Amino acid sequence: MRQVEESAKNVDLAIEKALTKLGITQNQAEIEVLSTGGLFKQAKVRVTKKQTEGEVASKFVENVLEKMGLTFVVELEESETDVKLELTGTETGCVIGYRGEVLDALQYLASLVANKGKEGYKRIILDTENYREKRVEKLNSLAKNLEIKAMRINKPVKLEPMNSFERRIIHSALQSSEKVVTKSEGTSPNRYVVIVPKDYSPSAQKPERKKMHKFVYRSDKKRR
Is 180 inside a domain boundary? Predict the structure, then answer.
């Protein structure tokens, strides 16, 4: 039940009755006064439960997927600070995209729609087939392997461009390392992480020896 109409001897009492029936607070409700009442007439109100950020995001995602010609069930899990939308369907590859680009874009748009006009901000997390957790595990493993490589060659190792979420995973994976430090360079969308050995010094690196090219002068003129 999302909407009720209630009557009472005044507007405030009618609103209170409606809120109690819906089990919500006044901040969660849209209130329409149908009648202020009178001497022999009761006040009447219509109270509608507002959609939560999670419900708005879920509806948006469902509409987008439908227009893409994809059939998915969207499961909603919402707390005071976060919204998690789990997508269940048969064409998950289309929703994930290359390295999660489609999933990230859909999550970003859902976040904009859900938080539009809100005073606070609720984080929207979109996932399917546990892709997010698998990606985190893969990036953690990558960070450790590249830490070893940076130490072996004693030079900075540059990763490919990543979004801010994935860069944070790399930084977090190596933040307690005693051997390397990480930093982000470049500008979005081509911003990337660099893993640098702690004892690396560019000035200490031996400059490459320039190859000497011999110049041979030849003359076609015959000596007389």
Answer: yes
- What is the number of residues in the chain? 224
Of 112, 129, 146, which residue is a domain's last? 129
Task: With CA atoms as reference, report the closest residue to 49 among 20, 77, 91.
Answer: 20
Domain co-membership, 33 together with 101: no
Q: How many domains does one find in the chain? A: 3
The span from the CA of 115 to the CA of 52, in Å, is 10
Q: Per residue in 147-196, pLDDT tens?
A: 999 999 999 999 999 988 899 999 999 999 999 999 999 998 899 999 99
* Type of residue numbered 109: L
User: What pTM did the predictor assign?
Assistant: 0.71
Assigned token pair, 166: 């994935």
Q: Tell me if 21 is assigned to some domain.
A: yes
Domain region containing 81? 53-129
Is residue 220 assigned to a domain?
no
User: How buried is residue 121: exposed, middle or buried, by Cβ count under 10 Å (0-12/13-18/19+)?
Assistant: exposed
